[in-house]
Amino acid sequence: MAESENLEPHQRLLLESQRSSRAFTLPLLSGINWTSVRRREMSVKMVELENMEAAAEHERILREIESTDTACIGPTLRSVYDGEEHGQFMDKLEGRIRNHDREIEKMCNFHYQGFVDSITELLKVRGEAQKLKSQVTDTNRKLQNEGKELVILMEDLKQCRLQQRNIAATIDKLTLCLPVLEMYSKLREQMKAKRYYPALKTMEHLEHTYLPRVNHYRFCKIMVENIPKLREEIKEVSMSDLKDFLESIRKHSNKIGETAMKQAQHQRNLDNAISQQHRAGSVKKPKKECAVGVDLDVESTSPMSEQDSGILDFEDEEDEEEVMGAQDLVDFSPVFRCLHIYSVLGARETFENYYRKQRRKQARLVLQPPSNMHETLNGYRKYFNQIVGFFVVEDHILHTTQGLVNRAYIDELWEMALSKTMAALRTHSSYCTDPNLVLDLKNLIVLFADTLQGYGFPVSQLFDMLLEIRDQYGEILLKKWAAVFRQILDLDNYSPIPVANEEEYKRTMGQFPFQDSNLEKQPFPKKFPFSEFVPKVYSQIKEFIYACLKFSEDLHLSSTEIDDMIRKSTNLLLSRTLSNCLQAVIKKKNVGLTELVQIIINTTHLEQSCRYLEEFITNITDVPPETVHTTKLYGTSTFKDARHTAEEEIYTNLNQKIDQFLQLADYEWMAAESTGRASDYLTDLIAFLRSTFTVFTHLPGKVAQTACMSACKHLSTSLLQLLLEAEVKQITIGAIQQFNLDIKECEQFARSGPVPGFQGDTLQLAFIDLRQLLDLFILWDWSTYLADYGQPHCKYLRVNPTTALALLEKMKDTSRKNNVFAQFRKNERDKQKLIDTVAKQLRSLINSHHS
């Protein structure tokens, strides 16, 4: 280092270049083991001699070391150490270093003077550079001091420019974003106000128009993500509103139906009023005759006498205001809103299916009648109101929406409703036994049908079902009137109606159409021939006709059909109900002959009144009786049958009375002679018959004659049976004579004419059998009997040989037992022989007759 400081600059430069060359090479060789290198030099020399190829390789490596950057010669040196000629290589390397040193030294020597000049100039430049540097530094310092304020201002200006640019950019972006935010805010407000359909429209504009302009902002992405959620929220909320709506209309169906039926009732009243105005003056409806004031222990005997219960029990005063419709009672906006929302969302079909499914379920609930519906009219009314309310709502939906419900769907629901309603009505109406309730039910069904028909629903099946209920109503009426007739008949005194003055006479004449000029001429007090039950029964028949007519109203039937229905129902009343009641009264055990006679008189007058009933029906139905296929009333035959039964009962009662008297008969069959007068029992019997036939004066002539003839025949037959009774073993001629006196008393009664109208001795013929038989035995005219037997004009034509033989046998046994010594008397023996002979001949006649 000390030497280098004493050298000239160019010498120091040369020395430094040599050192740097060594410094470049020596570090690379510092880690080499030189002992092994020398050993290898010997081996390399030997190898070089043997193989020249290794020298060429070393030469290549050296060239590569010379031409390659020092940082990349590691692989080259590694190839030297990996080989076995590294000693030789080292020699080569040393030789190459020496060659380079010599070249450097030559070059330095050649350029030495120029180098020294360059160094001198460089040193001069160094000084000038130092001056220039100091000047530049001073100038820079001054410039910095002077420009510091400007830099500050420039920085402020730069910041202002930046802020201005940012503000302009922000304004531009906000201009794009504000409509989006405003629309979104509007959307939220609409959601909050539950204006879901406008919200969907806002959402559609937001999604398709505004958001695509600013879709790279994060808040826009949040909005995009929220829009499906909002749609779902709207769907859920609108569906919730729809469910509330469905629940609301289910609750309000009763009120809706009530209002609709009230409208239909109001319209029908207006139509009836208009039609009555058209008919006023031209056709006069006959006034209803006053009902008979029957004093019965029942609340009322006539449905017409009861106050009509009304169909809907609305307030009596008519509201002059227009009746509200379904849209006034129910807010339909939820279903419209939900329909629009689902249509916008593309889920209209889902909404339609859900709505129809829920309404079908509600329809099934509405059509399920309560178990106690048949007990009161309110049960039926509520049931009908709910059904009407349901279909009024569906009809409104049909006409105010497009496709939510269609006519096929409505028709399907109506068919289901119609079948279930008719089944329920058939079931529950069958439990009803009150005709007033059935009539009110009919009126309610008619109003129900008219209401739904006004909305376009077919209701012909309901009117067909009303015809079925009409038959049931007829049966209920028959049962009710059966009780009415029974009570009238039970409470009747079966005595002619007495009238003390003109007022009572007119009242009775107003109740029953009776005409008798003789009765009109008689002074008061006087009596009608019939008892109380005649006008009462007649009035009740008319009340029954009115009840049948009441049911036929508003059934859209022709006058002919109504007339036919009334006549058939009246025929059932007469031929079945009234007939059975009369038959039951006639056949009661405690009914006397007086009551039976009065029943015959009453039925005769009722039979005569049938033509007035025919006229009555003709007047209220406006169908002339000569119309083809007009049903005739069976009243005549009904009352005839009742009268015939009463007549038979009179005959039977008379016969029973006769039998009771005959049970008192106490003949002394072994008497030697008669008492000379008729038996006491027979005298009493004849007196009874005389008094009884006196009561028959009001009976038709044939009835009294038949009763009298029947009584005489029964008496004759019973007396003959008494004579021929098996318990009577013997009969004397004295007993026969006593019996003959009784028969004469009967014949005297027959000749006296207890009942007018018999011709000649017609009534005496009832005893002709007994008379001929007794004459035969008393006169003992057997020769005539036996000789003339079988001749048309025989004296004893009515005497049966069997009867004569039976009586003769009784006398023969008596003759034998009473005359022990008769066989010793010639006359007695002859008589006994004659009896035996006659008996033998009688047996011969009997045998020949049988053969």
Automatic annotation (TrEMBL):
Transport as UniProt keyword: yes
The keyword Nuclease is assigned to this record: no
Gene3D superfamilies: Dsl1p vesicle tethering complex, Tip20p subunit, domain D, Exocyst complex subunit Sec15 C-terminal domain, N-terminal subdomain
Domain annotation Exocyst complex component EXOC6/Sec15 N-terminal: ranges: 92-261
GO biological process: Golgi to plasma membrane transport; intracellular protein transport; vesicle tethering involved in exocytosis
Keywords: Exocytosis, Transport
Domain Exocyst complex subunit EXOC6/Sec15 C-terminal: 461-810
GO (cellular component) term, any one: exocyst
Taxonomy, superkingdom: Eukaryota
Classification via InterPro entries: EXOC6/Sec15, EXOC6/Sec15_C, EXOC6/Sec15_C_dom1, EXOC6_Sec15_N, EXOC6PINT-1/Sec15/Tip20_C_dom2
Role of this protein: Component of the exocyst complex involved in the docking of exocytic vesicles with fusion sites on the plasma membrane.
Family, similarity comment: Belongs to the SEC15 family.
Name this protein carries in UniProt: Exocyst complex component
Native source species: Latimeria chalumnae
